[in-house]
From TrEMBL:
Its cofactor is L-ascorbate; Fe cation. Gene3D superfamilies: q2cbj1_9rhob like domain. Its EC number is 1.14.11.7. The lineage of its organism: Eukaryota, Viridiplantae, Streptophyta, Embryophyta, Tracheophyta. GO terms for biological process: collagen metabolic process. The chain crosses the membrane at residues 28-48. Keywords: Dioxygenase, Iron, Membrane, Metal-binding, Oxidoreductase, Repeat, Transmembrane, Transmembrane helix. The keyword Repeat applies. PROSITE patterns: FE2OG_OXY. GO terms for molecular function: iron ion binding; L-ascorbic acid binding; procollagen-proline 3-dioxygenase activity. Coiled coil: none annotated. It comes from Cajanus cajan. This is procollagen-proline 3-dioxygenase. Pfam families: 2OG-FeII_Oxy_3.
Length: 419
């Protein structure tokens, strides 16, 4: 499908391959060295995989049943502000493209940015995006697809009620933009398998809804006066934000902790070494140091909390084979799980993941060759721990460098810093 022309009755734009066409500054340089197809594919993949990593290691339960979200303010609140950096160029380019297409240059403000994933059972009927009194400030929408129909999920087709294109089959890197009013009533079919991931943005003409101003103020409170050395270790939000249950009621009897579940579907268990009498207080558990366990083996390396372990495991999923065989002293770090540890692990699983099949149904991947994440190899996990630290501290440095400029201009933008 190519870019669809402007229909006055249905102001909208579909852009195939937006990420690869826009994301890379060195595109033209590299063009001469690489075959275009391979090149386009590689550059779509980099950002898509990075945003997927961020979402799978930071998301909370979302605003609708079976939906998960990662908002930028949530990243700040959980000491993960540095993960805002990968969003900055794509956010800016989506805004530029939208303003140019809808002929409202310099008139719009980003009102909301979020990674949104829909798992099995999620859907939305006909609606416009400004269809609630508290959403009237939303004037335009942009949805950037981060994974692909038929490969990563089934169901989840997007439909406009009238006009062209009538339907969109999500593909990683494609973007759809439309006015948020009733000229663009749309729906999304129920997801029947896998997890459908998008980067969603809303735009407003009303400066009082400028997301940048709110984020800069939060960032200033959170990071300006903090010691840089530990500024990238995650802090979990309140435990109910990670508690998933079918009916969205925060009932600890039925459902699961999504951090626990995301590790579990990749084959990991968690062991909390610190003994405590209040073991079953979920909010306490989330802030305790943990060890990763796989089958009968435990990695003798402490993560500051479950979010830290989750980020490292998903970092390994992202970087994959590049991190394998990088560490040699693995054997000394892997120990057998004792009976007592096993009992504790099972006890925690019964509290935080009381329905195994349910978790796998929600977070299970589609069976496909590329989806077969190698996600296991202790030496890879150890290498990922170190590489994750480099990655996070580098992003953290960048946000410290960029923030003064953002504060000065009251806007989040891709500051070109001299090396
Ligand atoms: O993810 C999509 O394709 C659209 C989602 C949507 O319509 C919404 O969140 O309002
Ligand atoms: Fe919508």
């Amino acid at each position: 499908m190519s870019e669809v022309e402007f229909e006055p009755q249905h102001p909208r734009l579909f852009i195939p391959n937006f990420l690869s066409l826009n994301e890379c500054r060195v595109r033209f340089l590299l063009y001469f060295f690489l075959r275009l197809n391979l090149f386009v594919f590689l550059f779509t993949l980099v950002l898509v995989k990075e945003l997927e990593f961020i979402h799978k290691s930071c998301s909370t339960v979302g605003y609708r049943p079976n939906v998960f979200s990662t908002t930028l303010s949530h990243l700040i609140a959980t000491n993960s502000s540095h993960f805002i950096i990968p969003f900055v160029p794509i956010r800016e380019r989506l805004k530029e493209k939208l303003e140019q297409f809808f002929k409202c240059e310099y008139e719009l403000f980003i009102e909301f940015t979020g990674l949104i994933s829909w798992s099995r059972g999620a859907s939305i009927g006909w609606h416009s995006d400004d269809n609630r009194p508290y959403l009237k400030q939303r004037h335009f929408s942009a949805v950037c697809y981060l994974n692909t129909y038929g490969k990563d999920f089934s169901g989840g087709l997007f439909h406009f009620q009238d006009g062209e294109p009538a339907s969109i089959m999500p593909k990683a890197g494609d973007v759809v933009m439309y006015t948020a009013d009733d000229h663009n009533v749309h729906s999304v079919d129920e997801i029947t398998e896998g997890e459908r991931l998008t980067l969603a943005l809303w735009f407003s003409r009303d400066g009082s809804h400028d997301e940048d101003v709110k984020l800069i103020s939060l960032l200033s409170q959170h990071i300006l006066h903090k010691n840089m050395a530990d500024s990238y270790l995650p802090l979990p939000a309140s435990s109910n934000m990670y508690w998933f249950s079918q009916d969205q009621a925060s009932d600890y009897q039925f459902g699961f902790n999504i951090c626990w579940a995301r590790l579990h579907v990749l084959g990991y268990d968690i062991y909390i070494s610190q003994d405590s009498g209040i073991e079953f207080d979920v909010s306490e558990l989330l802030v305790k140091p943990v060890h990763l366990v796989r089958g009968n083996e435990l990695l003798d390396q402490e993560f500051v909390n479950i979010m830290h372990a989750l980020q490292v495991v998903h970092f390994f999923c992202w970087k994959g084979s590049a991190l394998q065989n990088k560490v040699s002293n693995v054997d000394s770090k892997v120990v057998k799980v004792t009976d007592m540890q096993r009992e504790k692990i099972s006890g925690l699983n019964s509290v935080l993941l009381n329905d195994d099949d349910f978790a796998s149904r929600v977070f299970g991947c589609m069976p496909s060759e590329e989806n077969g994440c190698i996600c296991f190899d202790w030496s890879g996990i150890m290498a990922a721990t170190a590489a994750w630290e480099d990655y996070a501290s580098n992003l953290s440095k960048q946000i410290h460098l960029q923030l003064p400029n953002w504060r000065m201009h009251e806007a989040i933008y891709d500051v070109q810093l001299d090396e």
